[in-house]
Amino acid sequence: MNPSKGARGRPQESPEARDRGGALTVAVTVAAAVVLNLVIYGIGRAAGGGFRFTAAGQAAEVDAITVVGFTVLPLLTGMTLAAVLARIWPWAVPAGLAVAPVIALGTIPVMTIPADFDDASTITLALCHVALVPVTAAGLLALRRRGGHVAARYGGGAGQGQGSLDQ
């Protein structure tokens, strides 16, 4: 095999380039989710959603900053964890592809539905959770395509032929 090519015939990247690529993938994924959720939130506001609820006996409201925070913090944490773990554990991305939708969708009945939002707000915020599923999946698949994990660098890993370190 050509020493400048990886096991799948792609040019090999330096670890530094791979790190930058992984960080860029995480950043683009989070930014896309923020934009998408703000668009959904804006549509919900235009549809008459008040986004007010009661928390600890006090009136509270979900505003755009809250939507950004509740999008960025969990997604940035999860995508960063996947990117870091994928470098040493080949199953990190497939595990993320299974776990991320469960978390995104599972928080709808735990957080959104129990709150005393009006219908437009409940539907809008639930859609924000749903929107995270394809965005997160695309980001995780981009991480996998980058070959950021050990198995991908050597031709093995999920859905691929088993390679060896000798290749």
UniProtKB/TrEMBL annotation:
Residues 10-20 have a biased composition (Basic and acidic residues). It holds the Pfam family DUF6069. It comes from the Bacteria. Keywords: Membrane, Transmembrane, Transmembrane helix. Residues 1-20 are annotated as: Disordered. The chain crosses the membrane at residues 21-44, 64-84, 91-111, 123-143. Signal peptide: none annotated. This is DUF6069 family protein. It comes from Planomonospora corallina.
